[in-house]
Amino acid sequence: MKILEELNDVQRKAVISTDGPNMIIAGAGSGKTRVLTYKIAYLINKGVDPFNIMSLTFTNKAAREMRERIESIIGSSEARNVWMGTFHSIFARILRIEADRIGYPQNFTIYDTDDSKSIIKKILKEQQLDNKLYKPNIVLGRISSAKNNLISHIAYNNNSELMAADKESAKPKIGLLYTLYQERLRKAGAMDFDDLLFNTNVLLRDFPEVLLKYQKRFKYFLVDEYQDTNYSQYLIVKRLAARNENLTVVGDDAQSIYAFRGANIQNILNMKTDYSDLKTFKLEQNYRSTQNIVNLANSIISRNKKQIKKKVWTSNDTGTKVRLISTSSDNDEGNMVARSIFEIKNEEKAEEKEFAILYRTNAQSRAMEEALRRMNIPYRIYGGLSFYSRKEIKDLLAYYRLVINPNDEEALLRIINYPKRGIGKTSIEKLQVVANQNKISLWNLVEQIQSTNILPKATASRIQEFATMIKSYMVDLDKKNAFELADHIAKSSGVFRELSAARDDDEGVMRFENVEELLNGLKEFSEEESDEVDADNSIRTLGEFMQDIALYTDADDKNKENSNSVTLMTIHAAKGLEFPYVFIVGLEENLFPSIMSLNSRADIEEERRLFYVAITRAEKRLFLSYAKSRYKWGDLQFTEPSRFISELEAKFIDDLSGDSIFEQKETRKKTMEASDSKKKVWGSKRSYEVQQQTATQKRDIMQAKNLTKVDTSVSEPEDTGDAAKVKEGMEVFHERFGRGKVVSIDGTGQNRKATVSFNKVGDKHLLLRFAKLKIL
DNA sequence: TCCGATCTATTTTTT
DNA sequence: ATAGATCGGA
To answer: What secondary structure letter does DSSP report for A312?
Structure first.
C-alpha cells in the first residue's frame, strides 16, 4: 500500500499491526498522530467498516483534525463514520442512547464545573457548613477523585478509610455532601463530567447485553494520550475491548500531565500485565525539533526517576541555542517577548501564527496580551473562559436547557428572574423549600404555583406567566429548527431586549455581539445536513445543538482556527501542538513549578514533565524567560528563578539573563536560605491543607487498586518552633497573626492543635507542627 | 424587591 | 485586579 511508504520502519510496523493489543510509546514529536491516522486509514483501506472503529482522543479538535487527515489520505468522506472524539463526548452519545436503563432521561443535561460548584455552594448553605472549611473546589475535588476511581457515594460513605481521612482533615461531612450532590444531579436529570464516565462504567457493568452490543459493534479501538487516562476511562476501554482485544493505545509517560484530575501513568505501565500478548512499539525519532531542543528536553526529563526507558533523538539540524531571558517584572517580560516576536518576524520572515507563548497559569496571559497589543501583534488566547462560559451566553443557554429538560434546576434558577420579572430571592427560596418538602422538582412547583397559596397572588401570577412562556417554547422543540426556536426564545423572553439596551459601553456591545454570534452559530448548525441517520424529519433541533455544548472547549472554537496570530495558552492546553517559535514564560519558583506542587516528589516530577512538554512544542527556536517581580492578587511580589532553570544544561543555552546559570544557582541557594523562615510560617496554614489533600488523594488511588499499603508519609518541615512546649493559657507570638493567648490544646503528636485567641485576628485553630509559635 | 457600597476570596493545570 | 457575595438602605 502506498501510504505505508510515508512512514519510517517502526511507524510502519505499528500501523500494520492491526489485530490484538498494541502499545505505542511515542516520544515527543515522533509522529504519533501520524501513526494513528495512518492506522485508521490503513484499516479502512483494508476493508474494515469505519462504523466499527472507535478512536478516543484528548480533545474534540484533535478528533476533527484527525478525521480530516484520514479523509485526505483515503480520498473519501468515509472517515466521518468512525466514532472519533473525546471519552466524554463519545460516551455521552452512548449514554443518551441507553439512558433509560440507568434511570436518566435521554435528554439529560451535562453540568459543567460552574453548575457543579453552584450546587455544592447551595448544599453547603442548606447544611449550614462553613464554606471556608468546606471549600467548594476542595469538596468537588474529593468527589471527582472518588468518581474517577469508581467509588460511588454509597461506597464512599461505607469506606472507613476515606471517612477517616476526611475526619482527619476536619471535613467529616464530605461523604454526606457527595450523597446530597448526587441526589441533586439525579433529580435534575443531570450528569457532571465525571458522571459521564462513571455511568458508562455502570452501564457496561450492569447490562451485559449492552456491553455485548457495543463490543460487537466496535471491532477496533484506538486510544490517544493514553498516559492521561484515569481509572474510570481505563476500565471502559478494557471492558469494551475485552471481546477481541483489537486495541491500540498510544502514549508517552514523559508527557503525563493530568495526574491532578486522576490520570494514572500506571495505565501505560500495566498494559503488559493486562494483555500478555501485547506488542510494544517505541517511536524514538523526533521529526519536530532541532537537536538543541531535543537534547535539552532529554536532559531535563532524565532527572525524573519514574519513567519508561527510551532514547528520543533527531537527525534534524543542531539549530540555535535555547535563549534564556530574565526581566525585572512581568510587564517587562511581556514587552521582551513581544519585541522578540517582532524582530524575529522581520529577520526570519516568520508569520505570527508560527509563534506560541506558553505559561503555567491562565492569569499570566494578561501581561503578554497587553504587550502584544501595544506592539500591534495579533494574538489569540486559548483557555480562560470559553465562549460558552460567558455570562450572557450561559444566561441564554439556560433558557434552552430548561426548555429541553425542565428539571434542570440550575438553569431554572438562573433565569427565573432574568430578565427581571419581579420574582425575588425570598420567593425563590420559599419555592425551593416547598419543593424539597414535597419531594417534587422546582419546575413542578413553578408549573402549578397558582393552585397553591405559598406566595402572594401577584408574585404567583408572575411565576405562572414565566412557566407559561417556557411551556410555549417546549411545544416548539421538535417543530422548529434549532435556530428558529433559539432566536424566538432570545427575542420573546426579553433577553435580547435586555442586552440590546445595555450596549452603552464596550462590554455591553461585546455581550450583545456574543449573543449574536451564538445565534449565528445556531443558524449554521440548523442549515447543516443532519447526521442522524434515523431522523424521521430533516430538521436539526435545539435539543441536538445543546447535546454536548458543555463539552466544547475554547480549543474547539472554529473561529480561532484560521487567523494568522500568535497563540497564547497554558502548557496543558498546548499538549499535542507544535510551533516553530515557542516562548515559555514565567519560569519562577512557586509559579512553575507551581506552589501547589512542591509537596512530593511525584508532584515535582509532574511539573517537570510539564516543562518537558513545553520544551518539546518548539520546532525551530525556544525562548525561556522569568521575571524578578510579578503582580499577584494586585500586589507586587518578588520572585526567584525556577529550579528548572538551574537544571538547564549550559551547552544548549544562550544565557541572556544577565547572571550566568551557575551564578544563578549560588544566588538561589542564598535567597532560599534568607527567605526560608519567613516563607514557611507564611505558608503554614495552607501547606497543612495541601498535604492533607494529597495524602488522602493518594489513599483514594490505593483504595481503588486494592493495594493494602497505605502511604501516609508527607514531607515534614523540620523546625517546629516551640510547638512541644505550648500549653493552655500561654501568651504566644505568631509570625502572621501576631500576639495571642492559647485558649485550648487538643490532639497529640502530629495532630496536636491549639486554639489561639489573637489580639488582632481573633480565634484561630493552628496545627502546632506547622504553626511555629513562639512562647512569650 | 432592588440597588449600590463594601468585603472577600481567588489562581494550577481541564473534560 | 476583579468578580462574586453580602449587607444595609430605599
So the answer is: -
| Among candidate residues A620, A613, A577, the one with its CA nearest the CA of residue A592 | A613
CA distance A72 to A67: 9
Q: Strand B: which positions are within 7 A of a protein CB? A: 1-3, 9-15
Cell (9 digits) for A213: 452490543
* Residue A530: pLDDT band with limits 50, 70, 90: low
What cell numbers appear for A263 in the block? 490520570
Q: How far apart are CA A112 and CA A25, in angstroms?
A: 33
Going by C-alpha positions, the residue among A532, A605, A617, A552 that lies closest to residue A385 is A552
Going from the C-alpha of A401 to that of each of A9, A91, A185, A486, A497, the distances in angstroms are 51, 20, 14, 11, 20
Q: Are A682 and A736 in contact (CB under 8 A)?
A: yes
**Amino acid (1-letter code) at residue A82:** V
Residue position matching grid coordinates 478512536: A55
Distance (Å, whole) CA A344 – CA A358: 17
* Strand, coil or helix: A196: helix
For chain A, how big is the Rg over CA atoms in Å? Answer: 28
Burial A177-188 (b: 16+ CB within 10 A, else e): bbbbbbebbebb
> Quick check: is A33 catalytic?
yes
**Chain C positions with any atom < 7 A from a protein CB:** 1-2, 4-5
Output the pLDDT for position A762.
56
Would the Cβ of A89 be found within 7 angstroms of any atom in strand B?
yes
C-alpha cell, A743: 485558649
Q: Is the CB of A426 under 7 A from strand B?
A: yes
Given A112, A224, A548, A603, the catalytic residue: A224
* CA A293/CA A621 separation, integer angstroms: 8
Q: Model-level pTM greater than 0.70?
A: yes
- Sort strands A379-381 and A566-570 into parallel, antiparallel or unpaired: parallel
CA of A420 to C1' of B5 (A): 21
Q: Give the mean model confidence (pLDDT) for residues A341-354.
A: 94
Residue at A700: amino acid letter:
D
Q: How far apart are CA A485 and CA A466, in angstroms?
A: 17
**Cα separation, A375 vs A109, whole angstroms:** 44
User: Distance between CA atoms of A293 and A255, rounded to whole angstroms?
Assistant: 16
Determine whether the distance from the CB of A293 to the nearest atom of strand B is below 7 Å. Answer: no
Cβ–Cβ < 8 Å for A584, A414: no
Cα gap A405→A550, rounded to integer Å: 15
Who's near A39: CB < 8 A, 6+ residues apart? A14, A15, A18, A222, A248
Average pLDDT, chain A: 84
Cα distances (Å, whole numbers) of residue A425 to A116, A123, A592, A689: 21, 17, 43, 34
Q: In what order do the strands lie in the sheet with A22-26?
A: A83-86, A53-57, A220-223, A247-251, A22-26, A279-283
A308: enclosing H helix or E strand: none
- The CA-atom distances, in angstroms, between A494 and each of A301, A393, A400, A414, A499 are 56, 14, 14, 14, 9
**Percentage of chain A modeled with pLDDT above 70:** 84
In the complex, which nucleotide's C1' lies nearest to the CA atom of residue A121? C5
Q: At residue A386, what are phi and psi to the nearest 5 degrees?
A: -80, 165
State the distance between the two ends of chain A, measured CA to CA, in whole angstroms: 83
Predicted confidence (pLDDT) per residue in A12-45, tens digit? 999 999 999 999 999 999 999 999 999 999 999 9
Q: Which residue has the cell 473561529?
A: A559
Angstrom distance (rounded) from CA A736 to CA A731:
15
How far apart are the C-alpha atoms of A455 and A493, rounded to whole Å? 23
Segment A620-679, tens digit of pLDDT = 999 999 999 998 887 888 999 999 999 999 999 988 877 655 444 444 444 444 443 333
The pLDDT tens digits for A375-403 are: 999 998 887 677 888 888 889 999 999 99
Q: Please provide the size of chain A in residues.
A: 776
